[in-house]
Amino acid sequence: MNLPKIHSISKKICVALLGGFLLIFLLFHASANLLVLRHDDGAWYSAFCHFMGTNYIVKVFEIVLLGFIALHICFTAWLWITNRLARPVRYHKDGKSKTHPGSKLMMWTGILIFSFLVMHFCQFYFVKLGWVKGEYMVKTEKLQDPEMMQWAELANQMDQSLDEFINDLEARALTYTDENSDAEETQAYIDRLRGKSEVLNIITRAYDEDNISEDGKWIRHLTYEERKVLRDVLPESDPEPDFYYMVRQLFHNPIMVILYLITFVVLFIHMRHAFPSAFQTLGLNNYKYAKAIDILGQIYAWVVCLMFAAVVILVYLGL
Question: The pTM is what?
Answer without folding.
Answer: 0.81
